[in-house]
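Form 7-S
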Amino acid sequence: MNLDNLKRNVPAKIYNRGVDYFIKGSVQELKQESPNHWYAKVEGTEDYHVSVYLKDAGMILSTSCTCPFESDSLCKHEVAVCLAISHYIEENGPAEVAEVEILQQLKSLKKAELMEILEELTEQEPAAMTFLINKFSQAAGLDEAAARRLIRKSAARGIRRGFIEWDEVDQAVEGAWEVYDYAEKMDPLKTGEKMIRL
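Output:
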């Protein structure tokens, strides 16, 4: 599913309710937490928190919402956030623009300031710590064992009482997305066997 074809892929009733939420301005605090991860709060019966993971060209990899809606489809809050993301990109250009500005700001900081930001990031985002552990333990890149560890650690973060809570799915699959992104960057002609094993 893509940001541009939500209407074709979401049941009409849910899509229309999502449009209503978007038009009423119920999507609050929309922010791009990383190049592929967006977050927003949606005001409804209560405040719901929505995460959307995207790939190039607006492809939706996964979404999560703290509302109790259970279906294979997006919920109305996720639809509203996807519409808000699409609108934001139309107004402000592709996501790479924000990433470049952040990189420029980071490059201008002193080592001590960067270390402080990195420490705060690893405290607030367990996935960042997992990423750094794997980055430094495998200088040559992910191997099969490291990929499995990364996926297991992410899944363990989302597991409570023997199953993954619906509002923890984005954390539980984060490691799988990292492995997927790593494999996507590999050259199939040179590392095809390694890609398959990952």
